[in-house]
Every structure is written in structure tokens, then in C-alpha cells.
User: Fold NPS3A protein from Ciccaba nigrolineata.
Amino acid sequence: LATGPRQNNSIFYEIRIYDIKPSKMKEFVEMVNKYFYLRTTHSELVGFWSAELGAMNKVVHVWKYDNFAHRTAVRHALANDKDWQGKFISPALPLIEKQHNEVAYLVPWCQLGKPPKEGGVYEWVTFQMKPGGPALWGEAFQAAINAHINTGYTKLIGVFHTEYGLLNTVHVIWWNESPDHRAAGRHSAHEDARVVAAVRDSVRFLDSQQNMLLIPLQCSPLK
Assistant:
């Protein structure tokens, strides 16, 4: 039911979300900044963030793979990388309370974007849509996203639809100059008749949604 149109290649993204022990968050971030170059020699990191609002002691990182065979080869290489295992994995695992991962594709009408400059904040919004997949809710959802883009206050980075994990889940990443800029933009958007109409049509297919304000880590390509 969750299968629908997607891009015409095999590229996918693995979304990893870790809950870090509250007393160990600073130590974990320092380890990431110091040793994560060992990990990124094996595959492409899209972004790595820590949650500032909407969650606490949580990190989110997104990895790009050419196909599933590529991911398998990378995981095998990581398991045999003594530097990675010894300098990061072994000391980092005791700092982590919980790990979660999903496999997702970019929706076919979205290309992965970049912020216009460094120094902003990212909003990660998760929509749990009704079963039926993009064939049911895709057009209405796209219209709601485009309505927000057209207001001009925010920059779309990516829209991902899960393939493995909780199905009919869509993750949307936005970039804003600051939390205050985002707040002012949202206020204006909610008074825009075009946004109101598009959102009203889209929420017919929505079960729930949640969001987090994310701050990029030093090692993150998206800053």
C-alpha cells in the first residue's frame, strides 16, 4: 500500500536517529566531531544534526547509498575497519540509549537541496499519512509543500518517503536563517489563503505529525 512513484534510479537514504544518554550528550558530540571522518571515508553523509527543540539528547544523521548492495558493502567494510571500531564505535556505544533507522527515497518531485548560506537552523517535520501511499495523498501533499515554498520564508532541503520503517511516513527538511525567522514566516504563511487552502486539502490524509528544530554538527555537510 505504501509503494508509489519515486525517482528513476536506485539511490536511497538511510535515516538514523539516536537517543543519547543525557549526561553523555556533550561527550558524544565531541567524539563525532573528532572521529567521524573515519566513517565518511566509506560512504556519503548528507547531514548530521542534534535536536534543539521538539526533542532532547537526540541526534539525526542521513546517509546516501547507490543501492542496497552498496550499503551492504559499506557495512561490511565498517565492521572490518579497526580504527572506526576502536576509536569511535567501542567508546560511543555505551553513550547511546536507543538507535532507530529507516530507509527512504526522495519523492520524485524533489531534489536534495542546499541552504543558501551556512549558519541557519533546520526543521525536521515527520508526517504520518493514511495508508495508501502517494497514489492516494501525493498530489495534495505536494501542493501543501509548494504552498509553503512559494511564501519565500523557508528553503526546502528534501522530502523523503519511507520504504523500510513505519510506512506512509514522510520526512520533510526545511532550512531557515534562525528560529525567529522561521516563527515569523510561519505566522505569515498561516494567514496566506493559498497555504490555508492547500493544507486544508492535504490534512484529509494525515494521521499525525511532529517536528524538531535541528542544529548541524561540525562534521555535517549541510550546515
